[in-house]
């Protein structure tokens, strides 16, 4: 009995929820005097009162003023340019705008010349684009990255990737110590 009662209440509730929007709909309002009633294509049938007249409706539409490009104005004050990239162009700094020394070097411009073991740890000797030698340690910053690891025969940079299509913002670049060939 208890289950039947619950089912009955559940069915009554579903019927109420489904029927509520239909019952709550208002009947169409009667047209005010002097104004044309909107045409109803679903209930009007030919030959009845309030018949839908296609020719009359077409004439009404054609007599209305067209909405053209002259009537629309766009005010861009206080808004961003919709044609400008949200990502923005890659800012490339020229030679004169980089800081001097190691902080101004790009990762691609650096070559590993050697690795030295000291009391404080490993120190890398690098050759810059100016063909001068520099000593760098883990944590030293370069223009587009940072030195994160020094091993016996290689160094690893974390290079910033400024590409919006890539998921990762950094990539690891390994520079290995290559023995120079002796010229005879």
Can you put this structure into words, describing what you see?
The protein is an alpha+beta fold. The chain has a domain at 98-176: SH3 type barrels (Roll), CATH 2.30.30.830. The protein contains 2 helices and 7 strands. The strands form 2 sheets. A 4-stranded antiparallel β-sheet has the order 4-5-6-7, with no helix packed on it. Strands 1-2-3 form a 3-stranded antiparallel β-sheet, with no helix packed on it. The chain is elongated, with a radius of gyration of 39 Å. The mean pLDDT is 78.
Question: How would you summarize this macromolecular structure in one to three sentences?
Answer:
The chain is α+β, with helices and mostly antiparallel strands.
Share of helical residues:
10-25%
Rg (CA only):
39 Å
State the CATH topology of the domain at 98-176: SH3 type barrels
Give the total of beta strands: 7
- Taking pLDDT < 50 over at least 5 consecutive residues as the criterion, the unreliable ranges are none
- Tell me the number of helical segments per DSSP (H or I, 4 or more residues long): 2
Separation of the first and last Cα atoms: 106 Å
Oligomer: single chain
Helix/strand order, N-terminal first: HHEEEEEEE
Give the integer mean of the pLDDT values: 78
How are strands sequenced across the largest beta sheet? 4-5-6-7
**Strand-residue fraction?**
15-25%
Question: Which CATH class of the domain at 98-176 applies here?
Answer: Mainly Beta
Any key phrases for this structure?
elongated, alpha+beta, SH3 type barrels, 4-stranded antiparallel sheet, about 20% helix, 2 helices, 3-stranded antiparallel sheet, about 180 residues
